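Methods — Computational structure assignment.
A single polypeptide chain was analysed. Its primary sequence is given first, followed by the predicted tertiary structure written as structure tokens.
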Amino acid sequence: MIRIHREGYAVLLFSLFFLILMGVILRVRVAGPVFVLYILCALVLYGLVLQFFRNPERALPRRDNRLVYAPADGVVCAIEAVDEPEYFQDKRLLVSIFMSPLNVHVNRNPVEGDVVYVQYHAGKYLTAWHPKSSTENERTTVVYRTVHGEVLLRQIAGAVARRIRCYVHAGDRAEQGEEMGFIKFGSRVDLYLPLHVELKVKLNDVVKGKTDVIAAFTT
């Protein structure tokens, strides 16, 4: 049975109501074959929306404060040392995960620690692959303080994804792998890590949130 995320309840109810309403109208006004085609298309469309809001239960493979788990499902689309201007204001290792509309869109805490910074930024809706999306798109920045150092997570809206949900607040205690947010209809999540971490992924790897390890602290 598909477990649905709470962010999908309203969308799914509205979609069901709209599709049924259109079906009633078409049933009266069009011929049988056209109505059958509409029913098939409506089922496929609703199935796509349903799978987008799925929220599968996952067990953390191993609780370890040295590990940084993937905060989202998707493809590793960037790995590079960059300047992080908002919080660290120095060079960090950036690991970006691109989430397509077919991915699970629950975002999870990559580490265990104290949430010390949360900041929402309004912005543009450039495609998530755009180099400037990390600094110019609508986004939310979250910083975790762990016993091994600080980790920054950034939820980034894309050309289609225009609704970011962040459930953590400064002062919260984050449990590794637990839900921290949701991004609707595909986008990107960036991790900014200390330069000395040991990477466990490479470019174009497919990762799952709360399941795959992105990096490990070495000290």
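Note: The chain has three helices and 14 strands.
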